[in-house]
Request: fold
Amino acid sequence: MKTHIKHCFKSIKPALILPIILLSNMVDGKSLDTINSHEGYPYDLLIKRSEQVKLIYKGKDKITCHVEVKTKQQTWKGEVYSTKAERFNQSPLATCMDRDLAKSILKSTF
Reply:
């Protein structure tokens, strides 16, 4: 499983990294890994200003995913998205979370 995560994110530049919490295996629901990613605005600020951001996904060629965000005021669970693995690997958080919604949640953290 860790090899899969490393493979998915091996192209990320170390100077542009932010932590994301990633539930990597939905089969047993027990694997919780921290990965590094750079997603850009508004995702990077949302990660910094939230208590926890979870990216839950399953699949190999076709990925089904959603994002859960915990802030001081609320816990938000996003809708489920389906995408190709290539797109998911390039930008996992942006692929699994609507940008306007990320902005809205981010705004509530100020």
User: Anything to note?
Assistant: Residues 99-107 form the longest helix (9 residues). Residues 42 and 99 are 7 Å apart (CA to CA).
